[in-house]
Every structure is written in C-alpha cells, then in structure tokens.
Amino acid sequence: MDTRTNILKTALELYNSQGVNTITSRHIAAKMGISPGNLHYHFRQTDEIIKTLYEHLAADFDVLVSELESIHPVSLDTLRDFAVRSLELAYKYRFIFLHFVEISLRVPAIRKDYYALTQRREKEFFAIFRQLKKEGIFRTDLPESIWEALVTQIFIMGDFWLSNNELTGRLKGSNAIKHYSEIFSGMFYPYLTPAAQARMAE
Amino acid sequence: MDTRTNILKTALELYNSQGVNTITSRHIAAKMGISPGNLHYHFRQTDEIIKTLYEHLAADFDVLVSELESIHPVSLDTLRDFAVRSLELAYKYRFIFLHFVEISLRVPAIRKDYYALTQRREKEFFAIFRQLKKEGIFRTDLPESIWEALVTQIFIMGDFWLSNNELTGRLKGSNAIKHYSEIFSGMFYPYLTPAAQARMAE
DNA sequence: TAATAATTAGTACATTTGTTCTAAATACAG
DNA sequence: CTGTATTTAGAACAAATGTACTAATTATTA
C-alpha cells in the first residue's frame, strides 16, 4: 500500500483508540515500522494528517447528503437510513468528534470549514423539514422557533453522541450505532403527525 | 488570598480561555507570578488541579439538584429556572465540558465519578417526569422509550452545548446562556400538553 | 544503462513538560 | 525570642515532541 495512505490509515486507528493528544507522529511511525523522518517526508506537519482525515470525513459526508437530496419524495425510511449511514461514518472517524474542540483549536482551518458547513446544512435541514411537512409526516402545528431549536439539537446530538458513548456506555461498533439511532428516532417522534407516529410503531 | 485557592482560580481562568491541553503547570505559575516549585508544593500533580476543579463543579451541581428536589410541586418555571442555573454553572467550569473526553482520559477518576453521577441523575429525571405528567404539564400519550431517549438527549445537550457554541456561535457569557436556554425550552416543547404549550406561549 | 527524482532511515537539536530537590524565607508556637 | 513547621524560589533532570538535516536506497525516466 501507498505509504501516505498507510500513514492515514494507521493514524486513524491510533487516534480512534487512544485519542488525538496521546498519539504523536512517532507513535504512528513506530506502529507502521517506518522512521519518523519518512513520516515527515509525507506530512511535513503532524497536523496535516489530522486535517487530511477531516477532509476525508467531510467529503464522505457530502456524498451521503447529496444522495439524500436526490431522493424524492423523502420518506421516514430514507431519513432513518440517512441517519444510520451518518452514524456509521461518524463512528469511522470518531476521534474527530471525540476531540472536536481540541482539534479545532489545534487546526484552525478545520474550525472555519466546519462553521461554513453547518451554515449550509442548516438550510438543507429546513428544506427537508418543509418537504416532510408537505407530505404529512412532520407536524405543521409547531411554532417556527421550535424547528430552529431542533436543528441545533440535531447538530449537537450528531456531533457528540460519540462523546456521550465514550463517557458512559462505551458501546462498540454496530452496538453503538444501533443504540444511538434509536435515540435519534425517539428524538424525532414527538415532531411526527399522529399518522406518521402510528406507522413508526409498526 | 490563599495560594492554593489562587492556583485553582488562575487555572480555571486559563483552562477556560485556552484549553486544558495548551495550559501547563508552568503557565499557571507564571500567570500568578509564583515559581513552578511552589505550585507543585500545593498540587503534586497537575492533574490534581483538574480533579479538584471537577469536584467543585460536581458539588455545586449537587446543590442545584437538591434545591430542585425540595420544591413541590414542580412547575414549568422551576424547571426553567433550574435549567438556567445549570447552564450558568456549566459556563463557569466550561473547560471541563469543552474537553470532557480528553479529561476523562487524563484523569480516570473523573470518568468513574461522572458515570456514577449519570446513573443517579437518570433516575431523578424519571421521577421529575412522573411528577410533571401527574400535574398535566407533560404529555401522557408518549411511549416509554421516547422518555428514555429524552433523558439521553438531555445529557448530551447539557454536556455539549458549550462545545457547539465553541464550534459555531462563540457567544459569550449571558448571551450564550440566553441562547441555549431557549434551545432547551424548545427541546421540551413537543413533550408538553397543549395546555402547558399554551401557557408557555404567553 | 545512466542520470535524475522520489523515498526512506537515522540522527540531531531546540523546546517543552512534569516533577524533584535544595536552600532560603516566612509564619507560627512555646 | 528561639526553634520548628510551612511556604516559596529557583535550579536541575529525564523524557518526549516536532521537525530538520544528511546520507543512503529505491524507483523512474530518458
């Protein structure tokens, strides 16, 4: 395998399992059996590794979102499917979410990028809400401010369910994803019309 | 002022403003104008400073909870008041929430303590939910699993609203608290009975 | 094949960090 | 006032870290 790709793969493994602050470029090189010099030939600065991994995550997530947007009409099932895929992706790059503030301090470019991203996503969520209301899945009797609060909730839950898992359950892999996708389902439930709630209970 | 207390005060300031990983015991000593030797006379290990600050937070929060539990019957206003006080307290010790996973890795005792705490809190929340249902404030037509999901939501939101603020809005002090207490209100809204919703809209 | 470019190993260096140690200064008790 | 305990400063050390540098090896290209 390409050394550069291998560095990214090994770094992801180590960051995920031991945290972004305990793992240094030397650890990554040692685990791969290459010299520190070699590693720094491919990534002059260690932070570039983190930045690259973040970019991979962002790119993968963009694919998920554009897939979602291509489906019309949006059903509750497509939404649930999207949620599960998002959780899986987040789990793959979990060190980013587990150390999000740390990383955004260390690599300011990530912070800027993330900020721009949330601005875009916010609009996309509102568009999806609008569709789901039209289709009789989401309630239409809630004040607008409630939907705004929901978007922030989605962001916080989406970014930090992994941290919650780390601090409490420590569920691994598919167990974690299963548990938290149920939390996400539950989170939307009170926003559904009675008809949609009934369909969900089946 | 007591040197020990002063160390804690200065450490809190620096951790809050610059993060727990960038600030070292030397930074704290320098800011206070004392020697590193002196600082380590009072706290043999730097982590003890973090642990002590966490204990202060936990103790302060315990006071809030026991105050809440002493009030009968629980109204929507007491709940909102409790939420605002909680947010204020979290803001005071914000570095802990901004670096929760980091810290729990660095100081395993904190992790254990937090885990035990959430177990307790979970029960307390269910008890409060039961009361609020009895009083006609919370809906009684939602399945039990939805309330379980809500508790996890409350934990995640409560622990990570500060991280969300750090990554996006960067609101300061009372502005942050105001904004996120509205998010919290919005979060509970769909769980309220129509009567309670109407009263809230006033 | 010869020359050039890319990759790699290994070493080296300045900085930082947590912590310890010693001695001085200060506070306090009898 | 004298002796003891507490507090403080400052130096010292070992370990770790990011990164740069040099020389060797390997791959590529003409």
From TrEMBL, chains A, B:
UniProt cross-references to InterPro entries, sorted A to Z: Homeodomain-like_sf, HTH-type_Tx_Regulator, HTH_TetR, TetR
Keywords: DNA-binding
DNA-binding residues (ranges): 24-43
GO molecular function, one term: DNA binding
One Pfam family this sequence matches: TetR
Start and end residues of each HTH tetR-type domain: 1-61
Source organism superkingdom: Bacteria
Stated name of the protein: Transcriptional regulator, TetR family
Species per Swiss-Prot/TrEMBL record: Chitinophaga ginsengisegetis
